[in-house]
Amino acid sequence: MTARLLHKAYGRRQVLRGAELTVYPGQLVAVVGENGAGKSTLLRALAGTLAVDRGEVRVRGRLGYCPQEPVLDPGLTALQHLRYFAAAYRLPSPAPGRALARELDYERYLGTAAGAMSGGTRQKLNLTLALLHDPDVLLLDEPYQGFDWETYLRFWKLVEERRRRGKAVVVITHLVFEQDRFDVLAELSGGVLRPRPVAAQHVPSGHAASQHSAPRHPAPGDAASEDQGRRSS
Question: Which positions carry the signal peptide feature in this UniProt record (predicted)?
Fold first, then answer.
């Protein structure tokens, strides 16, 4: 995934001022910054759920996006969400979602309406929906809010498994002690990203990104197609 010269303003407030980011297959990137720096705005722009004023995003393969606030219908059960998203992603069944529910230890709540779930369980379902179609590029906005310690560790196990399989992962985090987990730390300040390596970077050759967008994280009532183009310039 490559983002070039992203600009976004809300009225007179310029949030992104030419932000740029490249994430390679098998690479884990942290986006950090002060509260209000525009981290969630950046991730929404990368995911295609927010139009930028200028700039370009190129994504190779399928994209998964886990927003900070769960995108759930309070009247639908977890299993109904899995079935809906499986259909939106054109999967033959919600079986991958059931497997993730087991891994994240909330399978017993699959018959529970989202509105009756605890915040942590809703966040588990939110993460599951982003992972359901096994995306090549994964964007996670503080995805472990409300997780207990065991679930937090399970989350990182899921991320590491996908990293080993060559998935590109971007995580917004504010936890300083997590930084050694990442290959690149990208600080967003003044609307500009300043990436620096943390560990040996995973940069396989021959992985130039093609200009297109895979689906945004679909919301109930919105059957997003798998490969829908988007671009602002």
Answer: none
